[in-house]
Inverse folding.
């Protein structure tokens, strides 16, 4: 195995009285693609910042190869400069490379950095990261606020990049496609699995089961030692002092386990009164804003118990369609008929329903008292909040102090306490850890009402949706039974000719006086065409090879074959990187001749 390019050794870090890391070891070798998994609050973002050199540990060491370039893309990037090109080149990237990366993510390099959407901010930060050609790329929730097409662009870029990458993400489909190693931050330490994310669940469950057995054995041993202590430690104190110390250590161990055991997120959804069989029926819906057509002639029928996913590029009009279906927005043409007895709970992706100055207590109790009505039963607010992993001390803290994941959990806690037979979730998975996400999936699967879900999380959609409605951003809307995979299979080409993120095609920034147009030589032109063909074919070959490597049983069955496929995958990635560099050089030459 290659020597690590970036590593932490026996790292310890405390946040006040709370120990975040206690003996963390983590190593990243050149070219490795790894996930960093852990619950909200475990310290994943802090660990990335430490790897980036932004935080110093209280104890232990951080090692980076001399000259190694480490680039960290945080959850909330700060976009500075007058234009996106200014921002993307601020870290030293060459202009033409920054332009190429920005356009790959569907962004105009000349666009102002002011007034960007969340998705545009994320894509700009990722474009800058790739343009700087790092040796190690640290990504903190890179898929948040990005549509499926921008996520697919990110997957392609990671497949062709030569850098190592460590990724914090809750997007299972994304991690399964791009990672070949898992780091699990749990109980202040990091465990390592040298397999892709598809093997994580089974591996982690085995570890938890083993630890549960060890905890039961510890309890039995503690009972035996307590019995011994009560029966005669005073008479044998001198010769049994070592045994007494062992008992004390065991008690401390049990206390630590109990204190650090993960809270059980207990979600329950109050079923409202039964709605009519018809929830919403749309006929010939059409809606435009100026010359931009959002929906044109769309019809659908949503019935009680349906789970409808709405997908499409950022800015395509998904939230607009939801408002049309709920009758909150008037259509230009067509009609919508809502069912009877609807009780709607709506969680907005912008979390705009939270006031920064309110406390958690205020949000859950609507500003008064210490009780909250949960599924028709009064509950004390502190007890209910604990079911959503909030501690007592957080109840009096303002909403502004919460992380993104905590805000999402708070909105879920409030919405799920209220009776509802129609639940509308607009990007509910943003910032949630996987444990919470799994529990939310279980809850929604058992919900006997109707669900309308706006999401870019492909795995989440595939697990839940009974039908998928897709908008292409140009007025076309199509509905297909099943989830995301079903839609793609049944509607090939529906999203063709879309740039990542739904942005319009843009041209590279050019400067300097015009010259007489001069073409590439015949040899260069042929080479350019060959490189273009390679760039289009190699990602498919890489995907095919990495799919074979993702087979968890391949190494055990055929170690030599695994090694051959691994080398072929590495060669394909290297060939793609070389082809892209040569292509860019020829393109730059062609543009210089033509300018």
């Amino acid at each position: 195995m290659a020597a690590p390019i970036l590593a932490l050794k026996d790292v310890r870090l405390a946040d006040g009285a709370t120990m975040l890391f206690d003996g963390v070891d983590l190593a990243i070798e050149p070219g490795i693609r790894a996930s960093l998994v852990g619950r909200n609050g475990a310290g994943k973002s802090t660990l990335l910042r430490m790897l980036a050199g932004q935080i110093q540990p209280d104890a232990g060491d951080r090692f980076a190869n001399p000259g190694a370039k480490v680039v960290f893309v945080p959850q909330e990037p700060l976009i500075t400069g007058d234009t996106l090109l200014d921002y993307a080149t601020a870290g030293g990237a060459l202009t033409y490379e920054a332009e190429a990366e920005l356009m790959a993510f569907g962004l105009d390099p000349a666009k102002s950095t002011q007034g960007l959407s969340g998705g545009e901010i994320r894509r700009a930060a990722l474009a800058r990261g790739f343009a700087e050609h790092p040796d190690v790329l640290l990504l903190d929730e890179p898929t948040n606020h990005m549509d499926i097409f921008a996520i697919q662009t990110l997957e392609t870029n990671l497949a062709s990049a030569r850098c190592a990458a460590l990724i914090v993400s809750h997007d299972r489909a994304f991690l399964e496609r791009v990672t070949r190693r898992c780091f699990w931050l749990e109980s202040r330490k990091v465990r390592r699995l040298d397999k892709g994310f598809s093997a994580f669940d089974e591996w982690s469950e085995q570890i938890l089961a083993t630890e549960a057995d060890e905890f039961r054995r510890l309890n039995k041993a503690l009972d035996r030692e307590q019995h011994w202590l009560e029966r005669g430690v005073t008479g044998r104190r001198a010769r049994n002092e070592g045994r007494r110390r062992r008992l004390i250590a065991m008690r401390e161990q049990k206390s630590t386990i109990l204190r650090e055991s993960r809270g059980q997120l207990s979600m329950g959804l109050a079923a409202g009164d039964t709605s009519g069989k018809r929830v919403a029926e749309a006929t010939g819906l059409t809606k435009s804003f100026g010359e931009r057509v959002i929906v044109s002639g769309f019809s659908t029928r949503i019935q009680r118990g349906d789970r409808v996913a709405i997908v499409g590029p950022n800015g395509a009009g998904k939230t607009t369609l939801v408002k049309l279906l709920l009758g909150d927005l008037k259509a230009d043409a067509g009609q919508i008929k809502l069912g009877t007895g609807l009780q709607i709970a709506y969680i907005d992706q912008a979390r705009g329903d939270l006031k920064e100055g309110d406390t958690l207590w205020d949000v859950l109790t609507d500003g008064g008292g210490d009780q909250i009505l949960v599924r028709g039963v009064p509950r004390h607010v502190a007890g209910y909040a604990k079911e959503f992993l909030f501690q007592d001390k957080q109840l009096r803290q303002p909403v502004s102090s919460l992380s993104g994941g905590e805000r999402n959990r708070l909105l879920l806690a409030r919405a799920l306490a209220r009776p509802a037979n129609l639940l509308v979730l607009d990007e509910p998975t943003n910032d949630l850890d996987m444990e919470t996400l799994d529990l939310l999936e279980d809850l929604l699967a058992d919900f006997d009402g109707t669900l309308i879900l706006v999401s870019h999380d492909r795995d989440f959609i595939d697990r839940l949706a009974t039908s998928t409605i897709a908008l292409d951003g140009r007025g076309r809307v199509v509905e297909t039974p099943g989830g995301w995979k079903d839609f793609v299979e049944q509607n090939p080409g529906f999203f063709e000719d879309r740039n990542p993120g739904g942005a319009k095609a843009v041209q590279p920034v050019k400067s300097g006086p015009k010259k007489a147009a001069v073409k590439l030589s015949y040899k260069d032109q042929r080479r350019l065409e060959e490189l273009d063909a390679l760039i289009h074919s190699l990602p498919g070959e890489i995907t095919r090879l990495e799919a074979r490597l993702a087979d968890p049983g391949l190494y055990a069955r055929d170690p030599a074959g695994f090694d051959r496929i691994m080398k072929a995958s590495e060669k394909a990635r290297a060939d793609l990187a070389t082809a892209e560099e040569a292509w860019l050089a020829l393109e730059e030459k062609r543009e210089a001749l033509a300018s």
Q: What stands out?
A: The CA atoms of residues 6 and 574 lie 21 Å apart. The domain at 278-343+419-493 is CATH 3.40.50.300 (Rossmann fold). The first strand starts at residue 6 and ends at 15.
